[in-house]
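Minimal example, chain plus zinc ion.
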Amino acid sequence: MALAQTSSVSLTGLTGNLIDVEVDISDGLPSYILLGLPDAALSESKERVRAALVNSGEAWPNKKVTVSLSPAWLPKSGSSFDLPIAITLLMAQGQVPKDQPGECIYLGELSLDGQLREVHGVLPALLAAKKSGFIRALVPYENYQEAKCVSGVEVIAIRHLTNALAYLRSGQIPDSPQLFSSSSSDYLLDLCDVAGQVAARRALEVAAIGGHHLLFIGPPGTGKTMLAERIPSILPPLSEESILEVTAIHSIAGTLMGRELLSKLPPFVAPHHTTTAPAMIGGGAHAIRPGATSLAHEGVLFIDEAPECGRGVLDSLRQPLESGEVTISRAVGSVTYPARFMLVLAANPCPCGRFSGRGRSCTCTQVAIRRYLQRLSGPLLDRIDIRVFIDSPSRIEMASEELGESSATVRERVIAARAIADDRFAGCSWRVNSQIPPSQLRNRFRAEKSGMNFLHTELDKERLSARGFHKVLRISWSIADSRGHAIPTKEDVELALRLREGMELLA
Ligand SMILES: Nc1ncnc2c1ncn2[C@@H]1O[C@H](COP(=O)(O)OP(=O)(O)O)[C@@H](O)[C@H]1O
Ligand SMILES: [Mg+2]
Ligand SMILES: [Zn+2]
């Protein structure tokens, strides 16, 4: 009987599903049938596999070939099934021994001359395979480094189909690429580069402690981008679990090259303000790829010139901000990716950009200024916890030879403050102050009596909305953690209110 079977993996979001690749060759008119909900890229595998086999000196059966990918109901996409299909076909023809030792996974796209091409999502695919007991994987040469991140799976790097066949026929192991070490997880940008900006630095630190979202407002060239880019350097390093999750997301998106593999550094993602909603939250016609919000998972999403962003794009941020994940639905099905990030927005204060506390030559009317920032839509602004007005550093600050505090020093304080919060939240479903639910703020996580009284007065004066009330409380917990107060004091609450209010322009 000319029947053979191997295994591969198909991804739905970050979840890998084991796929049985079966090939049957029977007498009949030469034909090729591919079963199992293939998408366009997968349907084209026939031509790639045929050319790759012939150009590698193998025979293509002039018979009826049926390829089945099961479970059949699961939609499958992409080109990574080329390699398993080619090998199973040769097994069915008796040209490659069927009884391969151990459980093995095959992944890779074939080019017409038989070279194996890089594919996306190898890391999450192998994690799933390992969970199901697989101990060996044949992957494209370019994916070797990433595949090696999965401990306990023997990885064979394949450059060309003939290498795979030599391995399966006679155990000949092809050369693997040299692993480059990913030990140098130093971030190149350091907070000590920033002159002055004492208030902004303070806000940055509080935001990093509690995971609060930030808005920078200030004229161009005052260091907004500079400050934002340095936030990852003061955030705590990622946990082992988060490292794998973040790397897996970047593996699927094909953006691993921009990141050190298994980096402990929280990602920093800065989509341009002309970006589209699908690029922001994810999408695509066939395979649904993660967008900027997921690439920023466990890190920072920075949007410069935020008022210039399309309304739809900013509004698309609301789902991930609320739930920490995004669900994208397409005809082929729906996919959910994690998307828990610190949102950092930067905005010019007015259309001309020159409005400033020092009263420079801004020509905009009050109305125009107000309208400009209103582009940031109420619901989104409401989710911003801390607003910082940034002005140019003074001449003295710029001229000073003394460097500002380094990121390492600030990060140590952030880590210490987070450890305090961690203890407080033991057994809770959230980890940082910005995520304390409103009901808990009302009883368990109140500030000192005088602080609460102060907030109630602000409420009475209508200087604070109910949502603002909760935000200020959350921020005051972050301030208390940074100052070693067991419970927020009145001073902590007052500072929190100032951070929340930023500037009057937005009132
Ligand atoms: N506080 C500062 N300390 C040192 N250099 C600064 C500062 N603010 C601005 N600069 C210089 O100006 C450049 C532009 O800053 P940038 O962060 O891009 O401004 P913005 O995003 O506010 O337009 C920086 O690359 C840096 O060289
Ligand atoms: Mg900028
Ligand atoms: Zn202006």
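The mean pLDDT is 88. Residues 3-170 form a domain with the Ribosomal Protein S5; domain 2 fold (CATH 3.30.230.10).
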